[in-house]
């Protein structure tokens, strides 16, 4: 696990797990923790995340939409639907005016 500090928030990628969805597509569920260092509530939502495959950004499929109270943390899941057989991808995390890219090694589901 590694922490990524973006402004008043820290994001931690807790887990990235692939599961089959169709014969051609997999679901990539990324579990994250957002720690809000500000004294005010902050949005923890899927708008902050993009998965980059072959240079193309993809939006998540589900609707993570939470508020993280000031000086606290919350965990959530972000789901991406991706073509089967991918070995790697990059998760882009944005918060405020800052962003970072996190490489993900993808292992096929068993």
How much helical structure, as a percent, in the residues? under 10%
Quaternary structure type: single chain
Annotation field: number of helices: 0
Which structural class is indicated by helix and strand composition? mainly beta
If strands are numbered along the chain, what order do they take across the biggest sheet? 1-2-3-8
Architecture (CATH level 2) name: Sandwich
How many domains make up the 3D coordinates?
1
Encode the helix/strand succession as letters. EEEEEEEEEE
Task: Identify low-pLDDT runs.
Answer: none
In the CATH hierarchy, the third-tier topology is known as: Immunoglobulin-like
State the end-to-end distance: 23 Å
At the first level of CATH, the class is Mainly Beta
Largest sheet: 4 strands, antiparallel
Number-wise, the strands total 10
Inertia-based shape: elongated
Mean pLDDT: 94
> How would you name the CATH homologous superfamily?
Immunoglobulins
Strand content: over 45%
- Calculate Rg over CA atoms: 14 Å
């Amino acid at each position: 696990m590694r922490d990524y500090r973006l402004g008043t928030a820290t994001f931690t990628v807790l887990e990235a797990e692939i599961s089959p969805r169709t014969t051609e597509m997999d679901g990539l569920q990324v579990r994250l923790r957002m720690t809000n260092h500000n004294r005010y509530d902050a949005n923890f939502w899927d708008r902050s995340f993009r998965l980059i495959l072959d240079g193309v950004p993809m939006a998540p499929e589900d609707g993570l939409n939470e508020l993280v109270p000031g000086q606290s943390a919350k965990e959530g899941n972000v789901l991406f639907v991706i073509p089967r057989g991918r070995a790697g991808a990059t998760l882009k995390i944005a918060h405020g005016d800052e962003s970072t890219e996190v490489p993900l090694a993808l292992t096929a589901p068993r």
